[in-house]
Amino acid sequence: MTSNLFDFIDPENYGLAIANFPLPTGQGQTTRRLLNSLMIELTKAIGVIFALSFVSSSFTTFIIREKHSGAMAMQFLSGHSRLVYWSMSYVWDFISFLIPVAFIVIIFVIFDEQAYIGKGQIGAFIVLLVVYGLAITPLMYCFSFIFHSPSVAFVSFLALNILVTIITTVIVQTLELTAHDNPDVSSVADVLANLFLIFPQFAFSRGFYELAKGYAINALRLDQLTDSSHLFSWKALTEKLVAMTIEAVVFSGILLLVEYSRLRNVCGKCKNKSKIVSAAVSSGEHRLGIGADVLEERERVENVCYPYRKLNLFLNTTDGTTETDKTKNLSVF
């Protein structure tokens, strides 16, 4: 009987309507979503630094190769200023650093990473990448003095960048995650976060993290419930950008200080050595009848340290030989 009823019922007049009224998301679920999102973004920050570490580590290989092949010394001996040499290297390497930065931005645009290329985010993201390049380049230069092999230096700098990034970032992030249950841990995390800003790697990863954090808070509509601020506020990005800018200046100053202190040490050794040689030679040359004015001029030339002086040779012959004969086998070092 029930089956026969369907012959008299028009199915178009009947149907099934479903309505879904989900309960509001609890605070615990929202917090978990926020933490999961931030952990993923933190991993991206470490990945970006890992990629840029190949670029910054490669800057020193050419300098070490020049230094130990003698090309750098030849430039200085020809009158090239040390300040100009390092300034030009800095400018060239920074321009080279901008090329992978452009590729990173393009990749983030392709994958639609709104946390970094969204409206109001992309400008801060590019500034963060550029300032990181300004800070990390002179730091790599400072460590170039302790290496003799370009390949060893490249691997060492790569490992150094990755280890510093992972260790500092993981320590601070772990302390911050456990700070909700222990207020003392929160103060320790704040101190370490400020202390680790001396490393450009940590400052960049922290700024990267703040970009993602600000976007996640706005996406989850938590800006009214949390202490969120503008991207360029002091605790968000400005603190990190200022730290990396100061580091760029400080590392550049240390580089020039080391370079010119090495120059003074070499000059001092050259002068001491020339005095010993002059004392030994002059005792025998007095017996050969060489005049005092000649010995005085020789001592002045041997004490010249800077490569910008001119050495003029005047050959006065008194034994009947020609100047061509005198200068045939003459060598000056």
From TrEMBL:
Residues 46-256 form the ABC-2 type transporter transmembrane domain. InterPro entries: ABC2_TM (IPR013525), ABCA (IPR026082). The keyword 4Fe-4S does not apply. It is found in: Membrane. The chain crosses the membrane at residues 42-64, 84-111, 123-147, 153-175, 187-204, 241-258. Keywords: Membrane, Transmembrane, Transmembrane helix. It is a multi-pass membrane protein. One of its GO terms (cellular component) is membrane. This is ABC-2 type transporter transmembrane domain-containing protein. It comes from Mesocestoides corti (Flatworm). The lineage of its organism: Eukaryota, Metazoa, Spiralia, Lophotrochozoa, Platyhelminthes.
